[in-house]
């Protein structure tokens, strides 16, 4: 997504975790200096975060949105269940 933004291209992505989506959007915001707007409603990134119950200041804080700061309960849900050994 960042590469597409820097090259002026359209980029498509898919992510299951809203937290990781926030990370991606935040990084693109930092690279381009633009404020992303939800096409369907015209809401800004901060507006959408607030509607989801996330403090807009926290949503716009790059440290809080760093992928290392995202906590999972238990094993990472994106890799499926562990196989029995």
Task: Give a description of the structure.
With 85 residues, the chain is mainly alpha-helical. It is built from five helices and no strands. The termini are far apart.
| Rg calc | 15 Å
Number of helices: 5
Cα distance spanning the termini:
38 Å
According to DSSP, the number of beta strands is 0
| General shape | globular
Oligomeric composition of the shown chains:
single chain
* Class from secondary-structure proportions: mainly alpha
Question: What keywords describe this structure?
Answer:
mainly alpha; 5 helices; single chain
List the helices and strands and how they pair.
Elements: H1 2-7, H2 18-32, H3 45-51, H4 56-59, H5 62-65
Structure described in brief:
With 85 residues, the chain is mainly α.
């Amino acid at each position: 997504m960042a590469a597409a933004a820097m090259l002026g291209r359209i980029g498509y992505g898919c992510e299951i975790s809203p937290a990781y989506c926030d990370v991606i959007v935040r990084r693109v915001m930092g690279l381009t200096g633009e404020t992303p707007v939800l096409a369907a409603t015209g809401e800004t990134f901060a507006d959408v975060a607030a509607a989801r119950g996330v403090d807009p200041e926290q949503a716009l804080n790059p440290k809080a949105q760093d992928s290392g700061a995202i906590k999972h309960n238990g094993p990472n849900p994106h890799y499926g269940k562990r196989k029995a050994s």
